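Appendix B, example 12.
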Amino acid sequence: MSKKKFAVALGGGAARGAFHLGALDFMEENNIQIDAYAGSSIGAIIAASHASGIKAKEQLKIFSSSELKTALKFNYFKNGLIRIERNHQILDKILPIHKLEDIPKKVYITAYDIKKRELHYFEKGDTHTLCMASSALIPLFKPISYKNMYLIDGGLFDSVPIKPFDKNVFDTLSIDLFPKSNNLEKKRKNPLKVLKKKLFTQLYENNLFTIENTSQYLASLEIRNYSMFTFKELDECFKLGYKEAKKHFLSSN
């Protein structure tokens, strides 16, 4: 029997995505080959970028740059509070290959069509548009119009997407940025508290399938100490992801 291929499924979590980068950095250092990727929200951007050959530390540098802030614009009273300049040069830095099907390794991007109420796992199409769509967390971001679809954050409906991977073919590592605890810690005060509470409830519910069906599961309750909506803690979150990946792979050997 041939050895299974190795896939990673990267969950959504905005700035907490630095945890993904730390885990990927550990895999790079230890020559752990990834054959396929799937991602929701920030996980979609990181997955497509890494599959395109952008190393984890280089992605961290891009996400930490002041240039990223110039790509985010307040939308005021229009549809969505924030918009992303889709023609901004920083997108070419983090997503250099413009078609998903041209990326050397298989990538699935999760996004939800609010017109037909359908969840899609895109493996072909415009990389920039589909990654922005997968990250369109309403009401913060405006939904993305694409090929007669009106797409929003797929992580709201499949936070850590493992469904594209056949269990007979792939050994899948799911990296979850919203681990559930029976004794939820008190959250930091935040003007987005109500929105976050709704998101957390939805995410905890829809990731149960992933937890029960994935080959490997990587998460840390410590990540709940990191905010989704600030980029000030990226280095610390990156280090946590590296530490937890090291612990995970060493314990599985």
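The two ends are 20 Å apart (CA to CA). The chain has a mean pLDDT of 84.
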